[in-house]
């Protein structure tokens, strides 16, 4: 049993869906669980639709119709006539989406978010499943909300591993090709939940753990894990081998190729993870598993953009001590603020934070009641693992460095 994961870029259009079929044919299309994300930028468009819903905008219906047409364009290229059941299933999900908006009474954004965004994965997997059948690749479509059991922390749910494993073992036939969604699950009230943005990788890890899979392969539009994002850094190189520990470090600092939560369950059972190109499925790609820390050993560059840099000090210029720090972190937790970098001195405390849930402005106003607060939005956090002097110069060139933090294997810069 193997687990494959295809991201949104791999199924962004009809050509991509056809290529998924080719990859499966190349790698033997049975005894696999295939986890698939929403098509292209569908999740972003659903987020815009949610915003229109809360704004009570008259453009809501038009935005839903536009997204439906996007999927119809793909259907029209894949199937000969509009009576194919793939159209019926797609219509069903868009009807469900509209019904939810008509009936929903909850003002909770996070709850609404999780009930809506998962439609992208449900629709994409249905289309892929029907297309595979049309070209002779038999498969079974599964609604992942019936398989992954979580708590009710909407937008970042925790998995109930015992219940989830039992459900997966009861529903997945290891001799078949199973198609399911990344990113989504459900809580004890059967409301949809999500595992955090980019959680489809994590979904693949969950299935692999529960099924004791032989390996996991994440299919990307890059040849494997590179030592930097080629859209940001020039002259990047392929990393052929990465240890679990090093991969977790890279993911923790923000490397986007592998989701941070994906690696822990795989490491527990020593299940290898491969990152390969869906354009060249026979290439070796990158293996994450036991073995060398990194091969080849190169500086690895990571950047997280559009962060917020906060500097706090006491109003009476007294020391910034454990009591202050504890209070600040309690507020971070309450407002779902993820801290990416910390530095403190006797009278000040500086952090670089991610404003994913758009709560920073509210937090700043609360902090101002007890602290002097300076902040700067739109900063970038650069991280170099296994740095050398040339790597440091490369990042510092032509940038305003607000903060630098140096460790044995890692250096980080906050830049304006």
Distance between the termini: 47 Å
Low-pLDDT sequence parts: none
Order of helices and strands: EHEHHHHHEHEEEHEEHHEEEEHEEHEHEE
Characterize the biggest β-sheet.
9 strands, mixed
Oligomer: single chain
Beta-strand residue percentage = 15-25%
Rg calculated over all Cα atoms: 23 Å
| Secondary structure tally: strands | 17
What is the number of helices?
Answer: 13
Strand order in space, largest sheet: 3-4-2-1-7-9-10-8-11
Percentage of helical residues? 25-40%
Structural class: alpha/beta
The rough form would be described as globular
Provide the residue-averaged pLDDT: 95
Give a concise summary:
Its EC number is 2.7.2.4. By secondary structure, the chain is an alpha/beta fold.
List the SSEs and their pairings.
Blueprint (H helix, E strand, L loop, with lengths): L1 E5 L7 H13 L5 E5 L5 H13 L5 H19 L6 H19 L5 H9 L1 H16 L5 E2 L19 H11 L5 E5 L2 E3 L5 E3 L5 H12 L3 E6 L20 E3 H10 L9 H6 L4 E5 L8 E4 L4 E2 L4 E15 L7 H13 L3 E7 L3 E7 L5 H8 L3 E15 L3 H8 L4 E6 L3 E6 L1
Parallel strand pairs: 1-2, 1-7, 2-4, 3-4, 7-9, 8-10
Antiparallel strand pairs: 5-6, 8-11, 9-10, 12-14, 12-15, 13-14, 15-17, 16-17
């Amino acid at each position: 049993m193997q687990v494959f994961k295809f991201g949104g870029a791999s199924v962004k259009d009809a050509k991509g869906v056809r290529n998924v079929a080719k990859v499966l044919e190349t790698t033997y299309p049975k005894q696999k669980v295939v986890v698939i994300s929403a098509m292209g930028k569908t999740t972003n468009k659903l987020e815009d639709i949610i915003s229109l819903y809360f704004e009570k905008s008259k453009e809501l219906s038009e935005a839903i119709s536009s997204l439906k047409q996007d999927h119809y364009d793909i259907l029209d290229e894949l199937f000969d006539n509009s009576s194919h059941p793939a159209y019926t299933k797609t219509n069903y999900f868009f009807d469900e989406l509209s019904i939810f908006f008509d009936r929903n009474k909850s003002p909770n954004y996070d709850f609404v978010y999780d009930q809506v965004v998962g439609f992208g994965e449900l629709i994409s997997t249905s289309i892929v499943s029907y297309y595979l059948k049309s070209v002779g690749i038999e498969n079974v479509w599964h609604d992942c909300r019936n398989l992954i059991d979580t708590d009710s922390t909407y937008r970042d749910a925790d998995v109930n591993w015992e219940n989830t494993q039992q459900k997966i073992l009861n529903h997945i036939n290891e001799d078949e090709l199973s198609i399911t969604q990344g990113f989504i699950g459900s809580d004890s009230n059967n409301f949809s939940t999500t595992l955090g943005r980019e959680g489809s990788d994590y979904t693949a890890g969950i299935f692999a753990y529960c099924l004791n899979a032989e390996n996991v392969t994440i299919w990307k539009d890059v040849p494997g894990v590179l030592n930097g994002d080629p859209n940001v850094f020039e002259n990047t190189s392929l990393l052929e081998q990465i240890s679990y520990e090093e991969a977790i470090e890279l993911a923790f600092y923000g490397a986007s190729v592998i989701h941070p939560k994906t690696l822990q369950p795989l490491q527990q059972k020593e299940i290898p993870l491969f990152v390969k190109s869906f354009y060249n499925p026979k290439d070796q790609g990158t293996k994450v598993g036991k073995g060398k820390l990194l091969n080849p050993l190169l500086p690895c560059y990571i950047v997280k953009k559009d962060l917020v840099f906060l500097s706090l000090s006491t109003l009476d210029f007294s020391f910034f001590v454990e009591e202050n720090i504890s209070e600040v972190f309690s507020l971070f937790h309450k407002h779902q603020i993820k801290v990416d970098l910390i530095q403190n001195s006797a009278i000040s405390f500086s952090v670089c934070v991610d404003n994913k849930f758009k709560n920073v402005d509210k937090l700043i106003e609360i902090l101002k009641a007890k602290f002097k607060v300076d902040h700067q939005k739109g900063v970038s956090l650069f991280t170099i693992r296994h740095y050398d002097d040339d790597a440091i110069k490369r990042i510092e060139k032509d940038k305003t460095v607000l903060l630098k933090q140096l460790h044995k294997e890692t250096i980080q810069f906050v830049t304006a």
